[in-house]
Amino acid sequence: MQDAPALSAQAALELSGESHREARWRVIARTAYPFVVVGAVWELVARMGMFPARLFPPLEQIAETFVRLTAQGILPHHALDTILRLAAGFGLAMLAGVAIGLAMGRSRRAEDVFLPLVSIGAPIPGIAYAPLFLMWFGLGNVSTVLLVAFVSAFPIIFNTWTGVKAVREIWVRSAQAMGADDRRLFRHVIIPGALPFVLTGLRLGLAQAWRILVGVEMLAAVPWGLGWLIFGAREFLNTDVMLAGVAVIGIIGLALEKLVFQRVEDFTVVRWGMMT
Amino acid sequence: MRRAAITLLVAAAAYEATARSGAFPPALLPTLPTVAHTLVVNILDGTLVIHALRTLYRVLFGFALAIVTALPLGFLMARYRPVENFVLPLASALMPIPSLAWVPVFILWFGLGDTVSILIVFYAASFPMLLNTWSGVRAVNPLWLRAAGAMGADEAALFWKVMIPGAFPFIITGLRQAFLRCWIAVVGAEMIAASDWGLGWVIFDAKEFLNADLMLASLAVIGAIGFVFERLVFGSLERATVLRWGMVRAAKG
């Protein structure tokens, strides 16, 4: 029992030494090999001609379509429009959600007003509101952005509210005892104290927004957007275009999670020592 | 409780006043009695019930498929290194793709109909189950395993008596998340795949005829079913298992 950590520490030291570079290659190879296997199976099935090639294109055709559409600027245009909608909707949700959540956490009256409304709205899946929004605000961008904002606001509100409630009473009281006025209390105690929760809420909200947005784009008949690209390509049996679109959606989703949120967390709560 | 009731009454009154003021066409903003009337009529003549049953069939079928594949796979991932090395990169690559993005692709492959919705539900439900089972089994206290082994438990007993109960709080969380996701996925899939039956289809179809009352009534049914599953089904599952075993404590209140 006692020597187990020592052993692993030694192993780690060895790894970080000369074999560091090799270990890194090994990690890359290990991550890549499942994709190689799945790709090979896909290729085999596509080439055997079990399914029509239009419906089940070989990988190099998908790659070729991907490159062609990217070079022509079609794919970037679709992706850009989707990202702009996501940013607009999520931005709205962030402003409204954090404001409502903070108000609910700090004021009893706001909690009484908003909590029942939020609890009733939250369990209905966001996409179910889509036709209602389309009917009220018309086809196109306004409905899409508003729906994305509406849907992603719920987790933000809930988590901000919980976060403000979870700020230790003793921090608030000691800050007050040291003469902090309301504004400083807010900026230096409540916001940092609630931030881990708020960030979790934002992360959940963004994931929610992303899941809904692609679906709404298919329904809202917007002129550009990845959801629309996939949906429109079905009419012409362009499976390669659809799969290229799905790939871009996956890349953006991965980038949102890895780049945006992990950075924000590293810069705030991890640096303040509130989370490791 | 009383305060909540007051808020909801005030909100309902405000809505009713807006609807009756005539600022918006009544087809777009129906009064609450109209919505309630539509809801009751459609439930009594059985249409909404049939649609709801159809939607439930799709969700439960897909959910069950995910349970029989994703839970064992998650378990294997946690116990066997090669499985983990193979599945984890694939799962992390597929997870950020929203299930609804696959709907048009699946329609091409499997045609319109139940298959598409069921597979979309399966896709949406698999990842939360897979990842939660995986982390749940890995989080089982190794001391328990060794203690059970020392007391002479064989592989089967170890599995059923230690690992499954130990991982169950995580598995329940996974099932909950999975259900929320597939409830979204099925409604979206029904709208996009134009499947003729199902609550998502009712809402989408009602838009064509500006039947806002029917839309709001179906929204209420969708919300109610989601609520029932979250509170009653998963709540009682939790009470019957992890709460009874004393693995987690009930939240206060």
Write up what this structure looks like.
The complex is a heterodimer of chains A (276) and B (253). With 276 residues, chain A is mainly α. Chain A folds into two domains: 48 residues, no CATH class; 205 residues, MetI-like (MetI-like fold). Helices cover 81% and strands 0% of the residues of chain A. Chain A is built from eleven helices and no strands. The longest helix of chain A is centred in the last third of the chain and has 38 residues. Chain B has 253 residues and is an all-alpha fold. Chain B has one domain: MetI-like (MetI-like fold). In chain B, 81% of the residues lie in helices and 0% in strands. The two termini of chain B are 12 Å apart.
Helices and strands of chain B, in order, run as HHHHHHHHHH
Which CATH first-tier class of the largest domain in chain A would you pick? Mainly Alpha
End-to-end distance of chain B: 12 Å
What's the structural domain tally of chain A?
Answer: 2
CATH fold descriptor of the largest domain in chain A: MetI-like fold
Q: Runs of chain B with pLDDT <50, length 5+?
A: none
Low confidence ranges of chain A = 1-7
Order of helices and strands of chain A: HHHHHHHHHHH
Q: In percent, how helical is the residue content of chain B?
A: over 70%
Taking all residues together, what is the mean pLDDT of chain A?
83
Strand content of chain B: under 5%
| CATH H-tier superfamily of chain B | MetI-like
How many strand segments of chain B?
A: 0
Q: Let me know the average pLDDT of chain B.
A: 86
Shape of chain B: elongated
